[in-house]
Amino acid sequence: MSEMLATFLASTSVLEEAWRLCSIANTAFPGAYLVEQIGSVAYVAFSGRQMDAGSDQSSRNLVPLDAEGAGLFAPLCRHSEAEEPLKVHNGMLKLFLSTYPSLQIRIGALMGKVKSIVITGQSIGGTTASLSALWLLCLLQSLSSPMSTVLCITFGSPLLGNEALHRSILRERWGGNFCHIVSKHDIMPRLLFAEVVNHISEVQTLLNFWHWCMASPHVNVTDVSSQLPEDLKDTIFHCVLKDLELLSQAEEPSESLFRPFGSYVFCCQEGAICVENATSVIKMMYLMMATGSPSSSIEDHLKYGDYVAKVSKQFLMARNFDEEGLPDSSYEAGVALALQSSELTDKERKEVAIMAKDCLQMAQNDHKPNLTAASLAIKLSKIVPFRAEIEWYKACCDEADDQLGYYDSFKLKGSSARREARVNLNRHKLAGFWNSVIHMLENNKLPHDFDTRAKWINASQSYKLLVEPLDIADYYRTGMHLEHGHYIEHGRERRYETFDKWWRNRSVPEEENKRSKFASLTQDSCFWARVEEAREWLDNVRSESDVAKRHELWQKIDLFEMYARKLIQNKEVSKDVLAKNSSFSRWMEEWKLLKSQVQQFPPWFPDFVDGEVVP
Asked: Considering all CA atoms of the chain, what is the largest pairwise distance in Å, rounded to the nearest integer?
């Protein structure tokens, strides 16, 4: 995905337009942003001159996004209680929230008029752009109308959030929507990796210097940077380099408050390389900065215009090797070209070059999505016997003399009987496989369009319809609903919610043929969970003394009956639902009896007439 994104940016005018508008925003719109539409593409460019964030004395202070984000990032903030909450930089979030009211209006005016929205910004403006893009992606996910394409391009922006934010963006498959342009020595994108709390005044002086230069784009950067005290440059440079070196050697991401997300394009005079793996990004940040100096780390933050022009120009230039240095494989050639583009092949710094090569190889080995998907397809074929055994079990239950059906047979017998124990084991094996699929997808180890491929959409849907009723049966048989609450809200596994999303987003024909016979599997995999809730409502309506609460329960039961009858009418249920002794059939009999009692013996239910509450 990272290579595709880099090629797209380098071969089109998007990158140059984004930088052009960033430059205008830096000069003419301090503390704000500008919006410009070019054809079917709208650009939103945030100024890098955002003074408020620099005044935040807790420069590495992270706050929970769900608590402080005013509910604007709800889809992103869904996580289990065991997971670390999503956190973002406090000052950056405040900056975004201050612009949100006007931004919402401007973006709303663009919806439906453009096909793509590019949100961009330099420096602190780039981080505001990232938050704006996250908000827009969350908003578009909640809309049923066709979504616009969202792309966020930042130039030398500081980091935004923690490891949990990184994971959530991967989980939503949004990593490809973010491209962070980082020049070889620029200290700004690396700043929050370091403990700079003791150097706040130096950082503030540096921010003021950058802001002054952004407002005067024609000044000679090298000349004006010489006016900064040398001890200030040295202090910040070595502070960041020292902590960044430690992080580049760390094995656990939790050792850093901040974690990069999206694709990183590292630019220098020789070209650019694109890295997506977060660990490799941190290592490359260190290796490139280690070849610089205190002065270059400050000046590079103001040279993105030069780098953007070179990237676009050098995309058309062919590279070649000396005959004696020709790599043995195309893979090694790719790594060698990336090293050449990064300017880390200096023979005088062989150790750095070797470390950079290892880093790039790690990034390549970590991301072979098509091969991983092919391997996964083989594993899918190997779990077919587990699924087949469960299908055989369902067929036996549906034809059994007890007429309980699939769901109730497993719920009543659980894993106590030999046959049910075998089915239960297969249920867990299938869950393990599909959980591993989702884990690989969320960690960007599968192709970016994996969740749109018919093979996997249909396989996951079939699995869900077959096995989730067993999960529901086990949940209620073991009394988990008494401890945690009903299944749909409190017990449903996240993999099923993911498969629901895949199924909703699939491409479907405009007209689907009506069924002529009942489905082999009930098309709502949560049907039995709804039956369990309806059974509780029916029990409660008999004993409830409060008129208003009884009326509410009656309405819920009525709605469920309408829903169930519609499924049956459309033949979207399996015949086990209609088995004589199934939970649903028994519930229907009890419901009919209650309604007849209401109509025949009104004094028993004085508040109801024809199923309605009366004063």
From this structure: 100
Q: Which residues contact 595 (CB under 8 A, 6 or more apart)?
A: 611
Residue closest to 179 by CA, chosen among 206, 151, 159, 158 = 151
For residue 581, pLDDT beyond 90: yes
Structure tokens of 214? 């952004």
Q: Does residue 243 have an active-site annotation?
A: no
Residue that the structure tokens 């587990």 belong to: 386
- Give the span between the Cα atoms of 496 and 486, in whole angstroms: 16
Q: Could you read off the pLDDT of 519-543 as tens digits, one per residue?
A: 999 999 999 999 999 999 999 988 8
Q: What is the DSSP letter of 155?
A: E
Instruction: Enter the tokens of residue 189.
Output: 């994108």
What is the rounded CA–CA span in Å between residue 465 and residue 285?
Answer: 47
The answer to whether residue 415 scores a pLDDT higher than 80 is no
Q: Which residues pair with 264 in a beta bridge?
A: 180, 275
Q: 253: pLDDT confidence band, cut at 50, 70 and 90?
A: low
Q: Are 541 and 493 in contact (CB under 8 A)?
A: no
* pLDDT reported for residue 507: 65
How close are the terminal C-alpha atoms of the chain, in Å? Answer: 64
Is 301 an annotated catalytic residue? Answer: yes
- Give the rounded distance of the alpha carbon of 392 from its chain centre: 37
Does the pLDDT at position 283 exceed 70?
yes
**Pick the catalytic residue: 301, 367, 481, 486?**
301
**CB-count exposure of residue 345 (10 Å: 0-12, 13-18, 19+):** middle
* 263-268 and 178-183 strand pairing: parallel
What phi and psi values does residue 63 have, to the nearest 5 degrees? -125, 150
The rounded distance, in Å, linking the Cα atoms of 193 and 196 is 9
- Specify whether the CB–CB gap between 169 and 235 falls below 8 A: no
The catalytic position among 47, 59, 168, 186 is 186
CB within 8 Å of 541: residues ≥ 6 apart: 550, 553, 554, 557, 594
Number of Cβ within 10 Å of residue 359's Cβ equals: 26
pLDDT band at 485 (very low <50, low <70, confident <90, very high): very high
Residue 111 backbone phi and psi in degrees, to 5: -60, 130
Q: Is a pLDDT exceeding 70 seen at residue 362? A: no
> Could you tell me the pTM of the whole model?
0.68
**Residue 320 clears pLDDT 70, i.e. is over it:** no
DSSP assignment letter at 57: S
The pair phi, psi for residue 424, each rounded to 5°, is: -65, -40
Catalytic residue among 23, 47, 123, 297: 123
- Coil, helix or strand for 544? coil
pLDDT at res. 268: 82
Is residue 123 part of the annotated active site? The answer reads yes
3-class DSSP state of 549: helix
Residue 431 burial (10 A CB sphere; 0-12, 13-18, 19+): middle
What the block records as the tokens of 291 is 């070849």
Distance in angstroms (rounded) separating the CA atoms of residues 420 and 422:
5
Backbone φ and ψ of 34, nearest 5°: -125, 155
Residue 216: is its pLDDT beyond 90?
Answer: no
